[in-house]
Amino acid sequence: MTPVIQINPAHPEAQLIEQAGAIIRDGGLVAFPTETVYGLGADAMNEQAVARIFVAKGRPADNPLIVHVSHRRMLDQVAEGISEQAEALIERYWPGPLTLVLKRRPEVAASVSAGLPTVAVRMPNNAVALALIRAARTAIAAPSANRSGRPSPTTAAHVLADLDGRIEMILDGGATNIGIESTVLDVTSRVPMILRPGWVTEAQIAAITGAVARAASSEALQRSPGTRYRHYSPRARVVLVEHGSPAPLEAICKEHLKSATVGFIGHTPLAITNANFQAMILQADAAAYAGNIYAALREMDERGATVIIIEGISDAGAGAAVMDRLRRAASEIIGA
Ligand code: TXA
Ligand code: MG
Q1: Which residues surround ligand 2, an ion (CB under 5 A)?
Q2: Ligand 1: lining residues by beta carbon, under 6 Å
Q3: Which residues sit opposite 308 in a β-bridge?
Q4: Residue 232 and residue 321: Cα distance in Å, rounded?
Q5: Does residue 187 contact residue 324 with C-beta atoms inside 8 Å?
Q6: Which residues pair with 68 in a beta bridge?
Q7: Distance 30 CA to ligand 2 centre (A)
């Protein structure tokens, strides 16, 4: 029911982008690729349009959205009081996977911020996303384009599986590059605070700002409501085995095989032959995990796994963001 429009990811066709931009201007919903995951976009200044995002996703109204801009000047339409420190981060990381929480301007639809006095903003590093925002001539509010609680979409097919018939258009610009969501950084106080780890790491931020705080979980829960909800979950039950855990992977899989169809996602090949066992082996680095993990979770669901066992990686660098998502997706964590 929802049209999926193939678009050239490097040189998006102007006519297609114009059509999509018109839908946004008219208060409709368009899913589009970014460099991280697909977003579900609406005019950030239109209260009714933004309300439709929450309905389409089944998203709790107290979980605010990220606003996407196509150039630095557009930021001044949605946020104010931008510090020198924030400017330095923008200079270095925009366009890119760094979302800044700033003081919100009153013109932004209140539901975007879920009642908070702040607004989260980023400039995506993706030609289709940037062209769409320009064509819409407005900032675009866009959460990840999945049904609430499901793994974020990294392809147009994932978006269609979750949102068919609920939105006006899907722009298909191929698989996203990074595969996990942006870093969310609160820059409203002097020492910035990471509310959600992402592809831009703590060390990269600290190199520009000096000190950087990491939200202790209870405070993060207050300041970034989205981190409170169950997230990124396939239908199967997810068991995460932390990196460095002494628990033997093969034994864990075999134990579950007594009562479940097991999907294993990890970097260690296992010598298990069982009709109810399937494995997806990734490289043991953050880039490979980020790029494949959401697709792998959906794929294991489709292949009929009832339990998905995931081998974790190190928390170093962007590994922290990957492991944050996996810990949220897991029903059970076997510790290090
Ligand atoms: O990479 C990304 O960030 C993707 C692409 C589409 O840009 N978007 C994304 O949106 O991941 P979403 O809605 O799935 O996650 C937004 C996160 C949530 O954890 C939310 O609570 C937080 O950002 N957030 C949004 N506005 C906020 C605010 N004003 N203060 C604190 N946290 C905020
Ligand atoms: Mg999301």
Answers
A1: 144
A2: 34, 36-37, 39, 63-66, 97, 99, 101, 113, 116, 118-120, 124, 142-144, 181-182, 184, 195-196, 223-227
A3: 238, 263
A4: 13
A5: no
A6: 122, 140
A7: 16
Cβ-Cβ contacts under 8 Å for 129 (sequence gap 6 or more)? 32, 33, 34, 35, 39, 68
Q: For the residues of 173-220, what is the DSSP string, one character each?
A: --S-SS-SPPEEEE-SSSS-EEEE--SS-HHHHHHHHS--EE--HHHH
- Using alpha carbons, list the distances in angstroms from residue 170 to 17, 122, 200: 11, 21, 27
- The DSSP secondary structure of 38-87, one letter per residue, reads -EEEEETT-HHHHHHHHHHHT--TTS--EEE-SSHHHHHHHEE---HHHH
Structure confidence by residue, pLDDT tens digits, 237-287: 999 999 999 999 999 999 999 999 999 999 999 999 999 999 999 999 999
The pTM (predicted TM-score) of the whole model is 0.96
Q: Which are the contacts of 210, defined by CB distance < 8 A and separation ≥ 6?
A: none
